[in-house]
Design goal:
β1 and β2 form a beta hairpin. By secondary structure, this protein is of the alpha/beta class. It starts with about 25 loop residues before the first strand and ends in a 17-residue tail after the last strand.
Length: about 300
């Protein structure tokens, strides 16, 4: 394995592979070697997703899928498994997890599943709680290095731009530092980056659930399309159009804000004060790699959707 290249023949970190051959596909700075893919759209056979509520799929409720939430990762797995015999998918993410918990609880199980494609998103909840993005990066860098050393294709994310939101805009500077650190980690380990910060459609109100923290079904659909585009995989997911936000009077907007604060912000703050998490006592929705439309795992995920 050469520097900046994973064992699956993919070069990430925003750098195109100058040695790309006729069987390679380059999209968004990522080169995927399809020579050994037997005519398939991609070379991967096992996808494991690591993270928190973002990866678990909170904000995209669906009672027909394991865990009761679909999300971008399920959508990606559905697309990747559409024409690949034996394709399997595990989702180890649990809502509310901080980056140390994600690494401590999910890294070893993910390695044991021996995936050839891994998504890793950790640190968002820490940044939201004013955590140090540089401190986060040190531990994430080590974890990503272990995943990349297996030869798997690793996919990281930048955080979305929250500058247009009245409360979360306070952490915009920390998010920007977090994002630069993720890009640097990707370059160091040959990972791909799904750049949500530059995905301007994600700044639309309709891309978020009622809690304004998690993505809506439209948001998850858009992220799934961007994930596959980043890997250069042809897919049938149409990026969602959230449209223009509804026009409200100043009074109506303030009433909406007060309702949101009462229903979503206040419970979130109370959990922080009590050192509680909505993910307490929950298990991953897909702890084992299985076909995407396999039997649901019992996650006990009837808890509230908030972090």
């Amino acid at each position: 394995m050469t520097a900046g290249t994973t064992g699956m023949g993919m070069t990430g970190g925003g750098m195109a592979d100058d040695g790309a051959t006729e069987g390679d596909v380059t999209e968004g700075g990522v080169t995927v070697d399809l020579d050994g893919a037997d005519g398939r759209r991609h070379p991967w056979t096992r996808f494991v997703a690591i993270g928190d509520s973002f990866t678990e799929g909170i904000g995209d409720p669906d009672e027909t899928v394991p865990g009761g939430h679909r999300g971008w990762a399920d959508r990606v797995a559905e697309e990747l498994g559409r024409d690949v015999d034996g394709f399997s998918y595990a989702n180890l993410a649990i809502r509310g997890r901080l980056y140390r918990q994600i690494i401590d609880e999910q890294l070893e199980p993910a390695l044991a599943l021996a995936p050839d494609l891994v998504s890793f998103m950790a640190g968002g909840n820490d940044v939201l709680r004013l955590g140090d993005p540089d401190e986060i990066a040190v531990q994430v860098d080590e974890a990503v290095g272990r995943l990349a050393d297996t030869g798997a294709t690793v996919v990281l994310f930048t955080a979305p731009d929250v500058g247009s939101t009245p409360v979360f805009s306070l952490i915009r500077g920390r998010e920007a530092i977090f994002n630069e650190n993720m890009r640097a980690i990707a370059v160091r380990h040959g990972a791909a980056v799904v750049d949500m910060w530059s995905l301007r459609s994600l700044t639309r109100e309709g891309m978020y659930a009622a809690d304004r923290l998690h993505f809506s079904p439209l948001g998850h659909q858009t992220i799934a399309a961007e994930f596959l585009d980043t890997l250069g995989v042809e897919h049938s997911i149409v990026p969602a159009d959230a449209g223009e936000p509804p026009q409200r009077t100043w009074r109506a907007a303030r009433q909406t804000d007060l309702q949101w604060a009462r229903m979503h912000l206040a419970p979130w703050v109370m959990r922080r004060l009590r050192h509680q998490s909505s993910g307490d006592d929950l298990a991953p929705k897909r702890p084992e790699a299985s076909p995407v439309f396999g039997m649901p795992m019992p996650p006990g995920s009837a808890a509230p959707e908030h972090e």
